[in-house]
Design goal:
Number of helices: 10
CATH class of one domain: Mainly Alpha
Shape: globular
Helix content: 40-55%
Radius of gyration: 16 Å
Strand content: under 5%
Structural class: mainly alpha
Number of strands: 0
Oligomer: single chain
CATH topology of one domain: Lysozyme
Order of helices and strands: HHHHHHHHHH
CATH architecture of one domain: Orthogonal Bundle
Distance between the termini: 19 Å
Length: 218
């Protein structure tokens, strides 16, 4: 979840933190394919795919990382809203969305573009460290800087581990093809035909060099 408040303590501590997704952050990640199979709206699936591929390329991010963040934040529900006001697929807070130029947090393309832009900013801020960027996305960059690493919040630590676990599971070319095939199963080819025609042209190699050792970061 992205929040404009950066320095609150953990959610399970004496006070609340902004680090709270609509999906409960558990210590075990939900299988990526299981979540994808729950997305029923075919046009929404195609739009999610289009937006993830477009924005991940725009901000030099591996698409599997973006998919994993979306899964953890909202379970692929475009209209998801958390109790603290974060909304959309990548759970943008109102203030942060405004700073990213996102006018409608429930718009699939705008939400994903804003979330990817913010994730890229966190990667640049923390020297390309994927684990720290994810921790900042969840708990705020101020907390990462305060603790000089992943904050000692159970929720944030599980959040980072869950996302990297799913990235690791789907980082291979074959696995990525299976994931996208699951995402697009039975979609009418007339929906976004230019995108669907390219769905198998997916590299298993990370887009940016900082992801080459992603599984070793946590």
């Amino acid at each position: 979840m992205i929040s404009s408040i950066q320095n609150r303590p953990p959610a399970n501590g004496p006070e609340k933190t902004e680090a709270k997704s609509t999906q409960e952050t558990k210590s075990t990640a939900t299988p990526f394919s299981e979540t994808l199979s729950q997305v029923k709206n075919k046009k929404a699936k195609a739009e999610i795919y289009h937006s993830v591929m477009e924005s991940s390329a725009k901000y030099n991010l591996p698409p599997e990382l973006v998919f994993s963040v979306i899964q953890q934040e909202s379970c692929f529900k475009p209209n998801a809203t958390s109790h603290c006001g974060a909304s959309g697929l990548m759970q943008l807070m109102p203030e942060t969305a405004a700073s990213l130029g996102v006018e409608n947090r429930y718009d699939i393309q705008q939400n994903i573009d804003g979330g990817c832009r913010y994730l890229r900013e966190m990667l640049d801020r923390f020297g390309g460290r994927t684990d720290l960027a994810l921790a900042a996305y969840n708990a705020g960059p101020g907390n990462v800087e305060k603790y000089n690493g992943i904050p000692p919040f159970e929720e944030t630590q599980n959040y980072v581990k869950n996302i990297l676990s799913n990235v690791d599971d789907f980082s291979g070319a074959a696995d990525m093809k299976l994931a996208y095939e699951s995402l697009f199963k039975n979609i009418d080819p007339l929906l976004f035909p230019d995108l669907l025609a390219k769905r198998y042209q997916i590299s298993g190699e990370p887009v940016a060099p900082e992801f080459s050792q992603i599984r070793k970061r946590v």
